[in-house]
Amino acid sequence: MNNARYLRELDFARFHYYDRTGIYGAVMKRGGGAVQGASSTRYRRALSILSPYKVTTRLIYWEDKHFYLEHEFISLPDNFVRAVVLSKQTVTGLNIPASEIIAELEPNAQRPEISKDLELWLKSMDESSQKYRKQR
């Protein structure tokens, strides 16, 4: 599987996750939308052509206007995680925090602690943003 195919599969996985959890429906009901703001892929081992695999998706963190998802590409014959993707989903067109959407869907949900890898990735994106702001 080539790198472009991973991103294509992530689109399907993300839409499936949105539908399964009701997140996108809750955002749309309020007149908003969602876009992928960023992603970071770590390829651990090649996924051979015609190898059966699955993609798991889970919500790992949220803040203000963003949901953070973790996707794993897992080969079925050996259950090995072949690639891990962090993805930043940005809610558009709403003036409410992501926590309100989560509370509507899961009233008892607690925001997880931020993982070290997500924290470092967010710092990296912030650093990159600062770099480009300084050039203007």
Structure in words:
- The chain is α+β, with helices and mostly antiparallel strands and 136 residues long.
- The protein has one domain: Thiol Ester Dehydrase, Chain A (Roll).
- 39% of the residues lie in helices and 33% in strands.
- The protein has four helices and four strands, in the order ααββββαα.
- It has a four-stranded antiparallel sheet.
- The longest helix has 19 residues.
Quick recap:
The protein is an alpha+beta fold.
Helical stretch tally: 4
Q: Looking at this structure, what is the CATH superfamily?
A: Hotdog Thioesterase
The shape, in one word, is: globular
Helical percent range?
A: 25-40%
Element pattern in H and E: HHEEEEHH
The CATH architecture can be named as: Roll
Q: How many domains would you count in the coordinates?
A: 1
* Uncertain regions spanning at least 5 consecutive residues: none
> What is the gyration radius calculated from CA atoms?
16 Å
Features:
single chain, 136 residues, alpha+beta, Thiol Ester Dehydrase, Chain A, four-stranded antiparallel sheet, 4 helices, 4 strands, 39% helix, Protein THEM6, HotDog_dom_sf, THEM6_lcsJ_thioesterase
SSE arrangement:
Blueprint: H1 3-21, H2 23-29, E1 33-43, E2 53-63, E3 66-75, E4 80-92, H3 98-105, H4 116-134
Antiparallel strand pairs: 1-4, 2-3, 3-4
